[in-house]
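quick one if you have a minute, typing this from the bus. theres a chain ive been looking at and ive put its sequence and its fold in C-alpha cell form underneath. please have a look and point out which stretches look like helix strand or loop to you. anything you notice is useful, everything is just below.

***
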Amino acid sequence: MLRNTQTAVLLGALALPLAFVAGLATGQATPPPTETKGVSAVPLQSLDLSDEIDSTMGRPLRMRKITLQPGGVLGIHSHKDRPAVSYFLQGEVTYHQAGKPDVVVHPGEGFAEGKATTHWAENRGSVPAVWIAVDIPKEPN
C-alpha cells in the first residue's frame, strides 16, 4: 500500500511539469498573423535613386509616417529586398522577430531591418503607435 502511494506521488510530481511544458509548447505553436490590420501610412518624402546609385536603379528611398491603431497588427513579412530603419514618436509596439526575443519599442527608440529580418508587430497599448519609417522598396509607391 505504501509503495502504491509513493508511486502515485512520483507520477503526479512528474506529470505536473510535463503538463506545463506541453501547455507552453502549445501556446507557442500559434502561427504569426499573415494579414495587416489597423495600419495607415502617410508618404512624407521620396527620392528616385536611379540617378543616385547604380545598384538601386528604379528604386526609391522613401520616408513614411506609420500609424498602428490599438489592437492593430503588421502581418509577418521579410525585409529581404527592402532594408528599413524606423524611429518611434508615440505609443509602443511589441516587435516579434524570428529567432529573437520579443521587444517592446517605445518613443525615442527605433530599429533597423535588413535582409535577415522576418518579423511581425502588434500594438497592445491603448493609444496609436506612430513612427517614421525610411526604406528602399522594390516598387515605387
About this structure: The helical segments are 2-28. Residues 5-28 have pLDDT under 50 and may be disordered. The two ends are 76 Å apart (CA to CA).
